[in-house]
Each structure stands twice: as structure tokens, then as C-alpha cells.
Amino acid sequence: MIDMPATDALRRIRRVALGDFIHRSALKFGERTAVVDGDTRLNYRELDARSSRFAHHLIGTIGRGRQVGMLCANSADMVVAYNGIHKSGNVWVPVNIRLDVAGIDYILRHAEVAAVVVDEAFHAAPGVADMLTRLGVPLIVTMAAQAGTAIAGAVTLAQAEAGQSAELPAIDIDSNAPALIMYTSGTTGNPKGAVHSHASVGAALTGNMAGFAVTEQDVFSGVLPLFHCAQHGLAATVHLAGGCIVLLRGFVPDEVRASILRERYTVFTGLPMMYAALLADPAFRVDSMRLAIYAMAPIPRPLIAQIAGRMTPNVMLATGQTEMYPGTMSFRPLEHPQLDANYWGVSLPHNETAVMDDEGRLLGEGEPGEIVHRGANAMLGYLKDPEATAAAQRFGWHHTGDLGQWGPGGQLMFLDRKKDMIKTGGENVASVKVEAVLLAHPGVAGVGVIGLPHPRWAEAVCAFVVKKPGAEVDEAALQTHCRQHLGGFEVPKLIRFVEQLPATSTGKVQKHLLRREFEQIAAQAWTDEAA
Predict the structure, then answer these.
(1) Domain with 475 in it: what CATH number?
(2) What's the pTM?
(3) Rounded CA gap, 500 and 78, in Å?
């Protein structure tokens, strides 16, 4: 056996540290644009210098190895700040600013943050200032309207950077040390904090760069929120490669279309409804794009065909999970026209995927079970939750809570979330299958399908539907549509139209809220039906 002890010098030479990626890109592509944020453009030299200055501020004020919360919308300041946190050896804790104040307070306290980076506008939102005052940690204000700030105990990001060195901090960072804590989207109960190391995120970025063929010539969209792992992972990937990210504060179709054409995007990533909204303008066509990535939900084939014809023929579904830094898998629907929209495809280079039964046995083609992953992009574990960590990591694989099975050609088909599989009359019904059928109806804009208690069937398939504007469709028409494409036991026994579906910031329908809101309504419907 060869004994090669890991010396301090070797650890420093071999380290994976997220702040190093920006520094290295600056050495190679110093004058190339890294971030576009409205009228603000930062090249790599500027992004590297500013993030190093902020890193030195953090080291001088809170030290190293502490958690730093972040309450920010997409901006160049946000990119500077999170890269500065990485360079300082501290731990980035981005928080979904669309949560209520109590939910934000829970995350900041659970993570035990030592400081908070907050947008000036968000600080002024109802309840936020009082919550942060009670938290009692230093504040760094981003996107400040002026150099000074009247916020007690706060400095602006510009003030934090002033007078600091632009050199990369000469500190030791362990590749396996925590780099960030991403809290799950909270579709059920309190969110859990997935702790990722520099190495786990770094593995995802290098795998993405290979899997999506990212180069310094790429211009990526930044319309999804950077506090979410998917958009951060893509932004960090393009910065590893030396390309550009164009940040937007939100999705306004006219603004996004104009930005795509003006900045000549090469890669767009969006939710299915975003693509539908962009292509609702029949004059919209793109000649610069090489890749269209969609996520979170399947896209009907007619919309795939529109994307291919008017944006790029290279259309790809990318999947991932907070706990397995995204992406994990990819699927190219145009290359597999015989497979339905719920296929997830194959693993990206940095991880592998299997389907497992409850006893830990790996399953073959056509055998349904839980989708599991393993690879260097796996989280270290859940913060302060050893039981949930052990459950997620049993049998030496990360357990996703998703059900799937292998299909033809080694392509993985997603069946449903384990908790969302509906058990009705002794049959299992995948909610996503019913949702896909309803979404294919021309009058349907959105749908959430759940199982609700039923006195005869144990659970009944129930669908909550958002109509497209101006659509003339009723429950009977949708029942008829479903009977043409589903088995009898899969057809919803209850369809209700709603103005909107409760959803997370990334578009996931919060089905626990649907259950809570409609359980009694459904129970009354079954009673009336029996009478």
C-alpha cells in the first residue's frame, strides 16, 4: 500500500473552493462580461475584485466558518456577495424571499446566521425590518439607492467593499467543508437545510459544464431566482466556464423576449409556462440560441415542437434536487418521440441513478420503485437533523422520495412523488400522469392532482384546474377528455376550477395546501353523491 499523507500544502494545491472558480475565470477572461443586470455590466476582473473585497470585509467582521444569510432578488450585487461569502470561508444561506416573514425568520434562526445580506427594497417590506432587528446580527445592504443608509446596524455592500484588498484571501478552505445551506422548498412542513460542501457543488458545476457543453461563448438566462439551487447551479456553471449570465428580477414575457434578442442568449432555462408565454407572441423567433432547458414539469409535445421551430431544436429537460446539487439527469424529448413527457432520461456525468425497492434491492426495466442517486454532488446531510439524514442516505444511496422505473434504452421514467401516489380502489394512480393528460387539453393552463379520502375508494382522484384566459371548458368536457386517454380508475372523480394553484417560487404545486383547502369540500361532495 502506498502511503501518501495529505500535507497542508497538498490540501491547498488540490482544494476545491467555489470562490476559486471566479478567480480563475478572471485570470483567463478578465475583460469578458460575466454578469448583465439591466444597465450594470460586470466583467470577470470586476466580479473577482469586488467579491474578494467583500470576502475581506466578512473575515474582518465575523471571521470564518460562520453562516451568512441572504435575502436578495437577482442582481449583480447578489452575485458579488455570494461569491464573497465563498471566498471568505463562510457558509452561504440563501433564503426564498417569497416566503412569509415567519418562514424567513425560522430559516435564519435555524441556520444560526452571523450576518445577513439584504436588498434595501426587501428590508422595507412589511415585517422584515422588525424581524431582522430581533435577530440582532450585522446587516449588509445590497442594491442600495445611495451610498449611505439609515438602517441601524447596517452597511451597504459598497461600504463593505471600500478600502479592502482586491486579492483573493489567502486562507485555507477544506474542500469538504460546508459552502452553502439550501433550504428545501417546503412543500410539506418546515423546510430542511441541505448542507453542501465546496466539493459537492463543484462536482455538479463541472458535470453541468460537460453535460450541457457550456463554454465561454455562452450567454445564459437568469430569470429563475438565484436563491434556488437550479438557477444558482447554472449561474455558477457558466461562470466556471467563463460565459455570461443575464439577470432579470422576474418573468415578464415582453421584457424577457426583448432581453433574449438584445443580449443574444445562447441558453434559456425556464418553466413550461414561461415557454408558453414567450411563444404566445407569434412574431417571436430566436436565431442565437443553441439550447432550451426546461424543468419542474413536463411540456406537452405541441409546445416542444414550437420551441424547436422558433427557438432551438436542442430542447432538454433537466432535473435535480436540493439534496443532489443540480442537475442530476437530462432528457431530450425530440430524440425519443416514442416516450411520453414524464421521462427524465439519463444521468449527467457526475452522478449515477438507480431504482430501488424498500429493501434496498436495485430494480430493472419496468419495475417501479424509488429513484435514488449517488455521486460527488450529494449533500453532506440535513442541518441539525441526523434522523432525516440517515433516512435519506440508507443503503449507500441518496433517496429522492420520487418513484420511477427504467424504460427502453436506459431512459428513466418518473412516476410520481411517493407521497403523491394516489391509492384508489386497490389501484395506484400516478398524479403526474393525470396532470399530463389534463395539461394536453387546449383549455387548461395549470393543474394539480391529488388523492382525497373517499368512503368507498379509500382515496379519490381529484383535479384542480386553472383555465387558459378565454377558454370555454367545463368539468364534463374534461371528464370526457380524461376518459379518452386514461384508464377508468385514473379518471378524476372530482374536478374543480380554481383561479390559481398554490405553488413554490419554482412553480411546484404545493399539494399539501390543496389537500388542506379542499378535503372538507370533497367530503361534502361524496356525502351529497351518496344521498
Answers:
(1) 3.30.300.30
(2) 0.85
(3) 30
